[in-house]
Design brief:
- There is one protein chain.
- The chain is an alpha/beta fold.
- It folds into two domains: 140 residues, Rossmann fold; 111 residues, Rossmann fold (3-Layer(aba) Sandwich), CATH 3.40.50.620.
- The chain contains nine helices and twelve strands.
- A ten-stranded mixed beta sheet has the order 5-2-1-6-7-12-11-8-9-10, sandwiched between helices.
Length: 280
């Protein structure tokens, strides 16, 4: 039965850390979820091997941000900088995990950042990522690690940005009757909190099919203490989907890329939506 129940699927949450605002936001959200779901939390920091390789090249120089001066990369200085960043990430994890009273661990890896993050999180039930990283070129859309996690599609991934709290989320889930959308709905039910609102956007082939799905869900979903709201949008109206999602203005969008709408459309939505998204 689809009803509020104690979560049994998420027992280990991994979060990628790099001390950027998006990273700290994802850490806070991950710690909140770990507390709500009684899960363990693992922080992952990756020393960028590409930066270290560049530092060893004799012709590579860095240009200071606020001047035209150049200076040769110093390998040892870069290594010290990465160690300091790792310590800052570990300190942030200790502070925020302590605030939410969750069990935590911290791991440091060296390699290509997106690949190492995905590999390090293989034993977790949920990977939490900031939508963007430290690079100023990633201010719009997804950063490189988030893009790789989206492309891998091997596990639930939560894409976070600053300014959102798991305790205050209004959740919107896309539902079309497919197995993927049923899993998305189950995930949304796991995360909904008493007093909050769950919006279910039903995507039916016809008005009659949408009405039937709503009747079926109404009979089995029980949300005591919370509000359940149904919305309808024709499945074929893909161009209006992004606009309708923004109109509902939820705090968290939950969806699957194994629905009747194409995987490309789902991934396009995730890249365009400017608030948290959980892909299951």
């Amino acid at each position: 039965m689809l009803e509020r129940h104690q979560n049994t699927h998420i027992r280990h949450i991994a979060v990628a850390l790099d001390c950027s605002p998006h990273s700290i936001a994802s850490l806070t959200a991950a710690a909140e979820l770990a507390r709500l779901m009684h899960a363990d939390l693992t922080g992952i920091f990756v020393e960028d091997i590409n930066l270290l390789r560049m530092a060893e090249l004799p012709f590579c120089h860095e240009v200071r941000m606020y001047s035209s001066e150049t200076e040769k990369f110093d390998f040892s200085r870069l290594e010290r900088s990465l160690k300091l960043q790792a310590k800052a990430a570990a300190d942030a994890l200790q502070r925020i995990a302590g605030q939410f009273m969750v069990n935590y661990s911290f791991r440091v890896y060296r390699g290509i950042v997106p690949a190492e993050v995905i590999l390090a999180a293989l034993d977790a039930d949920l990977l939490v990522l900031g939508r963007s990283g430290r690079s100023p070129t990633c201010r719009k859309g997804l950063g490189s690690t988030a893009k790789k996690a989206l492309a891998e599609g091997k596990k639930p991934v939560l894409f976070i940005q600053p300014g959102f709290s798991a305790r205050e989320w209004t959740i919107l889930v896309l539902y079309d009757g497919s197995e993927g959308s049923k899993q998305a709905l189950e995930a949304a039910l796991d995360m909904i909190q008493p007093g909050s609102t769950l919006n279910v956007l039903i995507l039916g082939e016809t008005h009659e099919e949408s009405a039937k799905m709503e009747r079926e869900l109404s009979e089995i979903i029980k949300l005591p203490g919370s509000t359940l709201v149904y919305h309808h949008l024709p499945l074929k109206n893909e161009k209006s989907l992004l606009r309708y999602i923004r109109m509902i203005n939820s705090g968290l969008l939950v969806l699957s890329d194994r629905m009747k709408i194409s995987r490309e459309i789902v991934h396009g939505l995730i890249n365009e939506i400017d608030y948290p998204v959980l892909l299951v």
